[in-house]
Amino acid sequence: MSKPDLISWTQSRLGALYEAFEDESFASAFENAFSPSCEVRVNHTPSTLDTFKDSVSSRRAASTGITLSWENVITTGDSLDEPPVISGTLIITRSMRFRIRAAPAQRQTHINFSARVEIQQVQGDEDDPLRITSLYHTSVDKSPPIHFAMP
């Protein structure tokens, strides 16, 4: 795989986690992205893969729409001989079921991530042996400003 493919692969796998509305598609996206032995750190605190999965899943609850915005995504290597690290920023804007001033309420999550991608022996998925084996995930939730209509 070439350098742009690793960035695209990482964006598509992480993006699928946050864009999944159904439990089955979320579980499938999670399995396609992460190695079962993935090392996870959330806000620089060691975590388990299951705890991280539950955290991401719980944020989907009240959402009716999601927009992803990627910024400054880079990689450290061109080949898989030495496992590359892909890092960048992901901004997730969620539209909620309730409204504020006649518009859907929104919530933004700003995520800085760093993921090591390696070839893994995966049963039943010989077409895509890549998996994230280490993830550093730093996030903060923000409410975007409310824009009032001017008469």
Task: Walk me through the structure.
It is a single chain. The chain has 151 residues and is of the alpha+beta class. It has three helices and six strands, in the order H-H-E-E-H-E-E-E-E. The chain has helices spanning 3-19, 23-33, 49-58; strands at 34-42, 45-47, 63-75, 85-100, 103-119, 130-142. The longest helix is centred in the N-terminal third of the chain and has 17 residues, at 3-19.
Secondary structure blueprint with pairings:
Elements: H1 3-19, H2 23-33, E1 34-42, E2 45-47, H3 49-58, E3 63-75, E4 85-100, E5 103-119, E6 130-142
Helix pairs in contact: 1-2
Count of helical stretches: 3
Strands of the biggest beta sheet: in what spatial order? Answer: 2-1-6-5-4-3
- Quaternary form: single chain
| Intertermini distance | 55 Å
What descriptive keywords fit this protein?
single chain, 151 residues, alpha+beta, 6-stranded mixed β-sheet, 47% strand
Give a quick summary of the entry.
The protein is α+β, with helices and mostly antiparallel strands and 151 residues long.
